[in-house]
Amino acid sequence: MNQTFWLTNSLSGKKEKLETIEPGKLTMYSCGPTVYGLIHIGNLRSGVVSDLFYRAFQKAGYEVTYVRNYTDVDDKIINKANEEGRSSEEVAAEFVIEVEKDYQSAHMLEPTLKTKATEYIQPMIRMIESIIKEGKAYVTETGEVLFSVEDFQGYGKLSGKNLEELEAGARVEVSDQKRSPFDFTLWKPAKPGEPSWDSPWGKGRPGWHIECSAMIHEAMGPQIDIHHGGEDLVFPHHENEIAQSEAACGKSPFVKVWLHHAFLTFNQTKMSKSLGNVFNARTFIEQYGGELARWMLLSVHYRKILDFSEETIDHSLSALERLYEAKLRATQLKERRTLRPDPVKESVWGEFVSQIENYKKELNEAISQDFNTPEVFSVLFRLVREFNRIQSTEGMIDTPSVSLAAECFLNFIEKDFGEIMGLGGEEPRAYLKFLGEIRSKRMSTSGAESLSSDEIEVLIQERKDARASKDYAKADEIRNHLLERGVEIKDGPQGTTWKYV
After folding, report:
1. Phi-psi region for residue 424, left (φ > 0), alpha (ψ -120 to 50) or beta?
2. What is the spatial distance between Cα 331 and Cα 407, in angstroms, rounded to a whole number?
3. Percent of the chain having pLDDT more than 90?
């Protein structure tokens, strides 16, 4: 590999150099959603973050095996199915499809493998049998199989918890069948009206934690390079994954590097259903589009809390406008042809092209340092600022090398930046119009009276006609009127462009 990654490993709490189990290859698993409804914006962050990892590792040249799961058997799914008078299989199947729609809208690549818990019941049973054989689990009188936490040395190494510090009943179900209040379920007996499968311990279904361990082992083996999930999964879910996987297979560590992303907050308040401030991803994407959703979710480092607020949305909207205005200008200049070479101007554009290589190195370095996406955006906009500075200088676009410079600039946006970040690939003119409409709606919602894009185009044409007839006073009047209504226009060689301000 030409690119070395330094990742913050939740297991050690330190930034470590990535050294994969097999050189040149990388195995990665990401905990996906439980499918009983539309995913919320926090679930979408999880998907986008794992997709960023996947893109970056692929771009660096790794042969990546990336597995993302769906939990399709769970109390929440069963409860929803019972409420609606249909099977849990139908509920899960419906919302797997709906989740995939949101993932596609957010420009997420297809993983190597998408696993569903119900497709791995037999591997789960085999893993549970191995754990029992190793003396790390026991079967109760009711047919429940429980993992014996006290018999697994090192329990708590991921979360930093130890048994003495844990309180009975904290995030675990207390039962008189348990030897210890911290023991967790591997297999639970069947209940009326619930899906169940045959097992050596009677009909039942798997506990939540064993699902991921079995799917990982079946798809990629007893040890993997990267395991990703939200920080809320560190304990007990990921802690229990480590215990049962290492107990069953005898391999340690089960995962070399654990990566956890932080929560979302809403106006500085933690999102929760009880507070009524959880927003589903579908509603956000329908209103703002997948490009803006992805931009917003990557604007903050994955290990930092992202505050979901009007200000965050506005910042993302403004940033996208800046990017796509530059992209539109470069698209126009790429096709420009001239017969007036100028050695000085040629030299300036040539220097700009050579500097793009330095920006590429800075971008890759930012990604290598624990996926520092804020720095990636900083690199992008330093290049955008330099492009805007040069091309706005009088006469600088009237030279042959501008076409090559524009092409190299576009390649940086769409390939070097875009293929890693999953952004920058929209057609600029149409997308800028879409962003303008979003801004117009936001202004209307806030009480400001705004013009539609069609009304703006009519006024711009009137101004153009006024200038053609040398009625400059009227042209200035229209410009000022537009500015008063929150619309800034800019004249250029390719015509007049506008944006909401």
Report:
1. left
2. 8
3. 73
Q: Residues 6 or more apart from 81 whose CB is under 8 A from it?
A: 87, 88, 90, 91
Q: Is residue 143 in some structural domain?
A: no
Structural domain count of the chain: 3
Pick the closest to residue 124 from 66, 44, 204 (CA basis): 204
DSSP state of 395: T
Q: 324 is in which domain, residue-wise? A: 318-429
What are the angstrom distances between the C-alpha of 330 and each of 63, 384, 403, 408, 431? 34, 10, 8, 9, 15
Residues 222 and 119 in one domain: yes
Q: Within this chain, do residues 363 and 408 fall inside the same structural domain, yes or no?
A: yes
The per-residue pLDDT for range 250-301, each reduced to its tens digit, is: 999 999 999 999 988 877 676 655 556 667 999 999 999 999 999 999 999 9
Helix, coil or strand: residue 28: strand
Same domain, yes or no: 67 and 125: yes
CB-based contact 146:140 (threshold 8 Å) = yes
Q: In this predicted model, what pLDDT tens digit does every residue of 387-426 receive, in sequence order?
A: 999 998 877 888 888 999 999 999 999 999 999 999 999 9
For residue 258, the cross-strand partners are 227
Distance of CA 207 to the CA centre of its chain: 27
pLDDT score of 47: 98
Angle (CA) 216 222 226, round 5°: 60
Number of neighbouring beta carbons within 10 Å of residue 65:
18
Which CATH number covers residue 326?
Answer: 1.10.730
* Beta pairing, strands 63-70 & 25-30: parallel
Domain identity same for 488 and 423: no
d(CA 279, CA 472): 49
Closest among 274, 287, 222 to 248, alpha carbons compared: 222
- Asked if 343 and 395 count as a contact pair (C-beta separation under 8 A), the reply is no
- List the alpha helices (DSSP H) in 110-234: 121-133, 208-220
Residues 489, 460 contacting (CB under 8 angstroms): yes
Pairing of strands 63-70, 113-116: parallel
Q: What is the pLDDT of residue 10?
A: 98
DSSP type of residue 63: E
Q: Quick one: which of 224, 234, 233, 243 has its CA closest to 186? A: 243
